[in-house]
Amino acid sequence: DDPELLKKGLKRKLKQKQRSKKKWADRKSNVEKQKVKKQEKRKENITKRKEQKLKKKQQKARKKGRIA
């Protein structure tokens, strides 16, 4: 009913909305960073595993005398 109080309330709501928007944007960017990080790690693990398999295969072949 008091115009000053109404203005204050409106201002407070707007500030809260802005804070919420900022927090959401931060969270979104953080999630994106984590996603990229996990993808990189997965890629590294896959290549590492591929190399290990190849190495093991070559060792078995050497043991059986297929590779000199």
From TrEMBL:
GO terms for cellular component: nucleolus. Belongs to the SURF6 family. This is Ribosomal RNA-processing protein 14/surfeit locus protein 6 C-terminal domain-containing protein. Pfam families: SURF6 (PF04935). Keywords: Nucleus. It is found in: Nucleus. One of its GO terms (molecular function) is DNA binding. Residues 1-68 are annotated as: Disordered. Residues 1-58 form the Ribosomal RNA-processing protein 14/surfeit locus protein 6 C-terminal domain. GO terms for biological process: ribosomal large subunit biogenesis; ribosomal small subunit biogenesis. Its main location: nucleus. Residues 8-25, 50-68 have a biased composition (Basic residues). It comes from the Eukaryota. InterPro entries: Rrp14/SURF6_C, SURF6.
